[in-house]
Amino acid sequence: MSSFLICMNFKGKDIISIKDFSKKEIDYILDKAKGMIPYAKGEKYKDVLSGKVLSSLFFEPSTRTRLSFESSMNRLGGRVIGFSDPSGTSQKKGESLADTIRMADSYSDAIVVRHPHEGAARLAAEFADVPVLNAGDGAGRHPTQCLLDLFTILTEKKKIKDNKIVLLGDLKYGRTVHSLAHALSLYGVELTFVSPASLKMPNEVINDCKELGVEPSYTSNLEKAIRDADVLYVTRIQKERFPDAEEYNRVVGTYKINNELLKNGKKDLIIMHPLPRVTEIDPEVDATPNAIYFKQAFNGVPVRMALLNLVIGGKL
Ligand code: CP
């Protein structure tokens, strides 16, 4: 795909929602990510972001997003400042998000922000001149996760379009599936949503898919849904987003992926999960060739390397 893609300029661009990007732009980023794999693995090194500083501001817990962004910056020769726990910052003294962002803007060349409130990353971008990358805002969006999910489907299945894709689990609060449903619809896939009745995909996302020409199917019968699926994308029930613990207790454990269930699926079905998982995938599945969620998590590095290189303006 690379030789046909016209060079695009992303320098200074915010990465807030996947909806801000055209399919051509997404293809361009995915192509750049492919070229980053040897750098992400440490097989090659070029300090194209030497002298550049990334602010890594995590107002909410994270393992993969924070570490892969920080690894990406380090592997390109740049440096990282920031925090993984806002309790050690002046937010504790009442500082606003806007003022924290103003500071990070003056100390660095790009800002990665994760925040519990939907819309926080968009707000942050209004107060920063340097590019802001949304690392997840509440139950809203997670665009860099979406790009690494697309990258994983592309590398595993050699194409995104025409795949039969099942999105399973907490489709109401799971921000990764909101971004992914939109992006997959740009490519023309078959989408099936499987969730407990109280955790259905929001209408806004469903309408968005329809506007892009994809009519999703819905079922609560997972066994049936995976029968001819190419991709099963599993999500955790997002306990931290439930206003009521009772409601969470009613749905937790509704679906569990195990080797018995996989007998109903195609041999080359791939199982994805943005992680962390809790109980929704039995560890026995890890050893099957279908399980690619750890590879998917690694893909966060080449994808985020590509993004940082593009928005900060490195030359790789
Ligand atoms: N996929 C994901 O966002 O993981 P973390 O919450 O660990 O960053």
Q: Can you characterise this structure?
A:
The longest helix has 18 residues, at 23-40. Helices cover 38% and strands 14% of the residues. The chain has helices at residues 23-40, 64-75, 97-107, 120-126, 143-157, 175-187, 203-211, 222-225, 245-251, 259-262, 293-298, 300-312, and strands spanning 53-58, 79-83, 110-115, 132-137, 164-168, 190-194, 217-219, 231-234, 270-272. The protein is an alpha/beta fold and 316 residues long. Strands 7-6-5-8-9 form a five-stranded parallel sheet, with helices on one face. Strands 2-1-3-4 form a four-stranded parallel sheet, sandwiched between helices.
CATH superfamily of the largest domain: Aspartate/ornithine carbamoyltransferase
Strand order of the largest sheet: 7-6-5-8-9
- Specify the helix fraction band: 25-40%
CATH architecture of the largest domain: 3-Layer(aba) Sandwich
Largest sheet composition: 5 strands, parallel
Number of strands: 9
What is the count of structural domains? Answer: 2
First-last Cα distance: 17 Å
Report mean pLDDT, rounded to a whole number: 94
Please identify the top-level CATH class of the largest domain. Answer: Alpha Beta
Q: Beta-sheet strand percentage?
A: 5-15%
Count of runs of 4 or more consecutive helical residues = 12
Radius of gyration: 19 Å
Regions with pLDDT < 50 over 5+ consecutive residues? none
CATH topology group of the largest domain: Rossmann fold
Q: What is the global morphology?
A: globular
Structural class: alpha/beta
The succession of helices and strands, N to C, reads HEHEHEHEHEHEHEHEHHEHH
Query: Which molecules other than protein and nucleic acid are bound?
Result: phosphoric acid mono(formamide)ester
